[in-house]
Amino acid sequence: MTSHAGLSPFDPPDVEWTPVSPKLARARFIMVAVVGGLPLAGGVVAAALSGLAWLWAVPAVIGLLMLWDGLLIPRQVRAIGYAERADDLLIRKGILFRSLVVVPYGRMQYVDVQAGPLARAVGIASVQLHTASPGTDAVIDGLPPEEATRLRDRLASRGEARLAGL
């Protein structure tokens, strides 16, 4: 009988994880600043103009949430990784709520590379894998554009090779 003590379902043995770019953290910081900054500024203006002391709780809560996001983002980005194995692609993410997605190459229908304006500005892209089941679509955010292109081409060719072998 083999002992599985100490093994985690999120860290399979003999898997070398490839991390995403730290630039993903910069993009997420910008999003937090934009999404939280406007309500924060509005709350400060409203509290200052109204003269109501309790109204300062609104910008305080928004500021604390932004600070919390700022502390979590670097750890979240470091927790994201992927690994190419012989028959499948592994994608992991999450700190408290961890996730490990296994996508067999033979199940992939197509692979997208995407980059919105913010992603292009900071120099990252995303690779999205589409399978027959919408519940198993997987995304790898925060890849350098060259790596995203390489991964797309490699996954597409591996998927075609697996389909041809069926």
From TrEMBL:
<feature type="domain" description="YdbS-like PH">
    <location>
        <begin position="78"/>
        <end position="155"/>
    </location>
</feature>
<dbReference type="Pfam" id="PF03703">
    <property type="entry name" value="bPH_2"/>
</dbReference>
<keyword id="KW-0472">Membrane</keyword>
<feature type="transmembrane region" description="Helical">
    <location>
        <begin position="54"/>
        <end position="73"/>
    </location>
</feature>
<protein>
    <submittedName>
        <fullName>PH domain-containing protein</fullName>
    </submittedName>
</protein>
<feature type="transmembrane region" description="Helical">
    <location>
        <begin position="29"/>
        <end position="48"/>
    </location>
</feature>
<keyword id="KW-0812">Transmembrane</keyword>
<dbReference type="InterPro" id="IPR005182">
    <property type="entry name" value="YdbS-like_PH"/>
</dbReference>
<keyword id="KW-1133">Transmembrane helix</keyword>
